[in-house]
Design brief:
six-stranded mixed β-sheet, 12% strand
């Protein structure tokens, strides 16, 4: 078996995916050594984070030792979200109701990851079926934020966010149905892109609500890695965005959530700083809000979210299992909420999905980008949104904290969070830039520019390859 010193493994972990792949391309390390370095980092640090729900080290070693396809990211280790089917690995999705039997098939998205030469080293932790914005499934593990282990890394791609932020792996798959890439990216100090509807190859089996709401991409520490991760899954095989654009943008900004609530004071300051930064870079920026009914859009997301929970309950019953023994209280509560909804509620939700793309297209006829906070407050303490809390409390807390992100899921438009601020306790605060359909590249070009102006890649959490196990930053 390949061996690698811990110091060398940590030094590699401080590199982004492009730089790690370059080591392999230049012959300085092998793909097997790159993979072993990721395993060393996981074994050294993940006991403090619990971001990896299912290690797949032998599969990774086998894949890395075999000839890999050529590509700019060939040989780079990554994590799959625990709901993403991959041959030879289970897909537990954070739920006791799921079998640990390995899957035997992959959808086109996973085939693209394999074709890029990426090496899966395991599955990342997530809440049950991705139904909460924190990663605290009762079946375990409860994932901690590498910036502060008392706080949540967000969710539902929380294991992915924590692992990438700490440098365990440079890439991790995330999926976003109400903010589940942007939320953990914001909470963990990462750039995170939610692609627009239909801009990637198929990720999972057909499901009418998930097909409308969910976007998938690779989470990373650098914008170039995010751009490459998005590009490799595009149906058109377009080249990734390489850097900033000279084009100056018309940027609108807004403070309030969809429900009309003010964010935490730390987010107000973070937004003001981002406004000043964009203005200094020569962009035209002024306050404006799309002509949409924000509360109706949020209500529509809640209705559809409840139906996803009901589908999970129905699947468990259909498998001959007892929901009370196999599903968390929150998942069962969503099923009960959906049972109490009327046909009019569902029609109104789908009406929002039909109306929002047109309404946002009209808004983006006047502006290129909409800037808001990503979340309404800093990352919560562990336990504040655990799945055994009362359902009405959880619904209010979830959509209160995630008061901005569902808009793009309902409309099918892209959005990207960037780690432009930290609060007084050292917790990351994301700012979200949203655009019209088909304008992911515009967001990525802007992100390249902001990354150069407000670099975050050198800012590492206390639990990381650039920190100490005792919690002191190096």
């Amino acid at each position: 078996m390949v061996s690698i010193r811990r110091d060398d493994a940590f030094a590699i972990g401080r590199l982004d995916a492009h730089d790690q792949a370059a080591l392999v391309a230049r012959g300085e390390v092998t793909a097997a050594e790159l993979t072993e370095a990721a395993i060393v980092r996981i074994e050294a640090l993940d006991s403090r984070l619990l971001s990896v729900s299912w290690p797949a080290f032998e599969l990774a070693r086998s894949r890395a030792a075999a000839p890999l396809p050529e590509g700019p990211l060939a040989g780079v280790p990554y994590l799959l979200k625990d709901s993403l089917d991959y041959p030879g690995l289970p897909s537990r999705a954070g739920s006791a109701s799921r079998s640990m039997a390995p899957r035997d098939a992959a959808h086109p998205y996973v085939q693209r990851l394999d074709a890029a030469g990426l090496v899966p080293v395991g599955k990342s932790a997530m809440p049950e079926f991705g139904l909460l914005p924190v990663t605290e499934p009762l079946v375990g593990p409860v994932t901690r934020n590498p910036w502060s282990p008392a706080h949540s890394p967000g969710g539902s791609s929380g294991g992915a966010g924590a692992a990438v932020a700490a440098g365990l792996v440079p890439l991790a798959h995330g999926s976003d149905g109400a903010g589940s890439i942007r939320i953990p990216s914001s909470a963990c100090g990462l750039p995170g892109l939610k692609p627009g509807r239909g801009t990637t190859v198929r990720v999972r089996g057909r499901h009418v609500i998930e097909d409308l709401l969910v976007g998938d991409s690779l989470m990373a520490r650098s914008v170039r890695d995010v751009a490459a991760g998005f590009a490799l899954a595009r149906p058109d095989f377009a080249r990734p965005v390489q850097g900033p654009s000279r084009r100056r943008l018309k940027i609108a900004y807004a403070y309030r959530t969809l429900a009309g609530a003010e964010p935490h004071e730390s987010l107000i300051k973070a937004l003001e700083d981002a406004i000043h930064l964009c203005a200094r870079l020569g962009h035209e920026i002024r306050p404006a809000w799309p002509g949409i009914d924000g509360p109706a859009a949020e209500r529509a997301e809640q209705v559809l979210w409840s139906h996803i929970g009901a589908d999970c309950v129905d699947a468990v019953i259909g498998a001959g299992l007892d929901p009370a023994a196999n599903l968390e209280p929150w998942t069962r509560a969503l099923g009960e909420i959906a049972a109490g909804l009327s046909h009019a509620d569902l029609e109104a939700a789908y009406g929002q999905i039909a109306a929002l793309p047109r309404q946002l297209a009209a808004f983006f006829g006047d502006f290129d980008v909409l800037l808001t906070p990503t979340l309404s407050a800093p990352p919560p303490l562990l336990g504040e949104m655990s799945p055994d809390r009362p359902a009405d409390e959880l619904m209010a807390r979830m959509f209160g904290w995630c008061g901005y992100t569902p808009l793009q899921n309902m409309a099918g438009t892209p959005a990207m969070t960037l780690p432009l601020a930290w609060d007084g306790n050292g917790l990351p605060l994301g700012l979200m830039f949203a655009a019209d359909r088909g304008h992911e590249d515009l967001l990525l070009a802007l992100a390249f520019e902001l990354e150069a102006s407000a670099p975050w890649k050198s800012h590492w959490p206390q639990i990381s390859v650039n920190g100490g196990l005792d919690g002191r930053a190096a």
